[in-house]
Amino acid sequence: MRSGNKVARSLRILRETGRVMAIATGSALLILSGSALAMQAGDVVVTPENRAIVDAADRSEDDRVTDERRYPGKMLTFFGVQPGMNVLDIGTGRGYTTELLARAVGPYGSVIVQNDSTISERFLKGETPSRFSKDVMKNVTYVVRPYDDPVPAGTNDLDLITVIFAYHDMEWLGRDRAATNRSFFNALKSGGHVVVVDHAGNAGTGVSESKTTHRIEESVVHQEFNAAGFQLVDVATFLRNPDDPRTESFRQSTVPSDRFVLKFRKP
Asked: Residue 201: phi, psi to the nearest 5?
């Protein structure tokens, strides 16, 4: 067996056991061992504070149904969101994640939430989702801006940016993801984080499945955030599903989609 094939086979085996992640960095291949990443797979232990947020009596029944496939306690814990933080939620949709973030940062924190102008017109008829009138959302500012110019002017002190099932949309909408990621970098504090969650595309497909099955190849996200100056510092696998054939959109699939969860840091 040629040495190149041996390396490829070894990397495949190690990936499958969750002990390493390979990240393309220019022409180099950076191998991160499991010990180099703080949180892996089942190691996301929900904090009591985040459990209380998820269990809050005034959350809607619709959101509790969504909880069954989103694992919000683990997600909030992975975010590392704390009271008093300033957060930007990209591609909020109808605001499921935003409300959780608003509860987590509390009255002394803030959440800016963005929907792309095309998404707003096509799916929300240009209206602000009704949940944004709830008392718990008083610390939230809702904006409609294109994905490649998502950050309001003067925003430069963010602790956290979340991009939940929205990064793939930027491709089929024709948005400039490099510009998006530059805006993220400029808006974050040093040491701030971006968390990207999306439906995993098949190997070698890049962004070509973004409009058909609403997926994106994970390596694309690694490469583009690395190019913008971010460092991958954490991964979680509580949304992974190896039984997903990756042939259908999450809307049509009979099994939960295979979803990656990545955390990047601004140095």
From this structure: -85, 170
Please tell me the distance from the alpha carbon of residue 177 to that of residue 79, in angstroms, as a whole number.
Answer: 22
Residue 92 confidence (pLDDT): 95
211 to each of 76, 121, 156, 262, 263, how far by Cα in Å?
28, 17, 32, 22, 24
CA distances from 25 to 12, 19, 89, 216 (A): 18, 19, 27, 18
C-alpha 204/C-alpha 116 separation (Å) is 27
Domains and CATH numbers, the chain: 1-36 (no CATH), 38-265 (3.40.50.150)
- Dihedral (C-alpha) 174, 176, 265, 27: value to the nearest 10 degrees? 100
pLDDT digits 0-9 by tens, 65-86: 999 999 999 999 999 999 999 9
Cα separation, 265 vs 267, whole angstroms: 6
Mean pLDDT of the chain: 87
